[in-house]
Every structure is written in C-alpha cells, then in structure tokens.
Design brief:
mainly beta, OB fold (Dihydrolipoamide Acetyltransferase, E2P), 5-stranded mixed β-barrel, two-stranded antiparallel ribbon, 0% helix
Length: 103
C-alpha cells in the first residue's frame, strides 16, 4: 500500500465495458514525509475519494482484491481515505488541516 493525494479526475467516455460506472482519479504519490513526488497515476476510486484528499492506493494484483474490483481491469485502486497519520509519536498528517502537513 502507498499514500497519494488526489489532484484531479479523469474523464473517459470511450473505455472497456468493465470500467463503466467507475470514477477514475489522478493521484500524485507521496513520500513517507508527506512530500508530493510528481509521480502520477490513474486509480479507480472504490471509496468515494475527492480532490485534495490523502488516500491509500494499492497497485498490481492487489488492486483487484476488493469485492468491487474483482472483475475490473485495473492495476491501481484507491482503497482508503486517510484521516490522520502518526509516526514516532508525532502527527505528520491530519485531514482537518491538510495544508499544514503536505509539502
């Protein structure tokens, strides 16, 4: 699992049948100290994430392991929205004030 921040949406009217009805989001991957990497990927949203939210992303065969994704052709899925992150006793991210923590 990896952390990323949703920076946009992807609109695709022409796509395979199994992708119809799924929201595609543009995710900028984050480092362990919450810095943006400018390493973007497109992920299927399975939890209702939105722009600016820090999310948990799985890639590879794990991206198809949720009940919703079993037959969907994807190698990246958003499986969680992060509320807070604590590391070594310090809060390094809090959804209530994301600008304070994201770099």
């Amino acid at each position: 699992m990896e952390l990323g921040i949703v920076e946009g949406t992807i609109v695709s009217t022409a796509k395979v049948e199994r992708l119809k009805g799924y929201k595609l989001l543009l995710v900028n991957m984050l480092t362990g100290d919450m810095k943006k990497t400018d390493n973007f990927l497109v992920a299927i949203d399975s939890v209702g994430a939105g722009k600016g939210e820090v999310v948990i992303v799985v890639r590879g065969s794990s991206a198809r392991q949720t009940d919703k994704m079993e037959r969907v052709p994807t190698d990246s899925s958003i499986i969680g929205i992060v509320d807070s992150i604590e590391r070594k006793g310090d809060i390094i991210f809090d959804k209530q004030n994301p600008a304070e923590y994201l770099k």
